[in-house]
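Quick entry, no commentary yet.
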Amino acid sequence: MLPLPGRFNSAVRALAARRFAATGTRWKDVVFERQFDLFSLADARAVEQDALDEGYRFDFSATVSLESEPDKYKRPEREAPAFTDGGTSADGRRQVGVGDNVIRKSATVTGPVALISKIEQVMGYLADGIPEGTIAVIDDSGGTLTAPIIEGFAGVICLGGTVRSHLGILAREYDVPTLMNCKIDTLADGDVVELEVTAAPPAADAYETGDTGHARIWLVGNEG
């Protein structure tokens, strides 16, 4: 059994056993009589909180795929899709990329980027937290790598996949502004970008017609 389920299930069994012993009755009576409440939702939350209070950070979920199928989740040796059609806007911003918008928002999202490609980076974020406003830049395989921490990002730029990919589903679930299938110029950690998440998501037949990639990415500065 994996570490977290093992800990959780052991705590459930121990609590249920104590409560059963306290009833002083037969097991079959406890099973079929609803007045015996051996375990509740509140108990489940308390067991989880106990694990968190002792410092458990769910790090196993960030490493299990890499350990079980290292070749599948190996970072691909390839250049990021290049974007070369950018221009400069009237207010001095420079367009550095384009992608497919997953969730349409009422306002654009701006923040410093963090290029994430290593498990050590994810483990660091799990332990120390993600700086507020961070926009993650990942390749398609990094969607699995960053899944345990995706809800902590202000936005995501993914260099592969589609709005229907697993990462797109997670983005909608956690309401994280995300652009998929992106083509970008070179970005460095700390570059401040603006994601045009006000753009409409691709139409249902967009991937058949090729009519995707209308959400723009603008470079607006650098934290340094």
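second:
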Amino acid sequence: MLRRSIYRPVMPPPLPIAVTAGETGPWQITAIRAVAGESLAPARRLVVEEGQAAAPPGAWRLRGVTSHLRYTAEAERDRLASVQEGLGRPAALRAALIPIRKSEAWWALAQDARRAILEEKSRHIAIGLDYLPAVARRLIHSRDLGEPFDFLTWFEFAPEHNSAFDALLARLRATEEWRYVEREVEIRLARD
């Protein structure tokens, strides 16, 4: 019989996520900017759906699924779980959706080589920890679904943490890991 420590976070089952941009949704799109590669079509509003719900057609729709933490060591996972707060906090009136596609050179690397670039060289997890709990994050995997992006990264934060979020992005984009990004779009959002 497998025994689990009550202190260890348990990953919930994969959850399908769909993000649809169009004329309706709780999030107002305040900016869409191509950071690398091609942008996405303009739109006014955005809705994020969990599960198998179907939003009305829009300017574009991106899909993915939540998954287990793939490059995270046990101590990092425990630290993240102890500091990160959930999505949907009442004060989190700002958000960002950042779809990312990495190069084939990235995916040709073995998983341990990708981990070495991600954390040992780029300090991706350590950088993210510097901004918790102010910035909540969810990583959505899309590559295996044949989507145009490998990942959809969703961030939520209070308006007063906007400059901290900008600093987080600047630090992450200055790392070796970001040399493997061939397409990235930054979508800024606000809700009332």
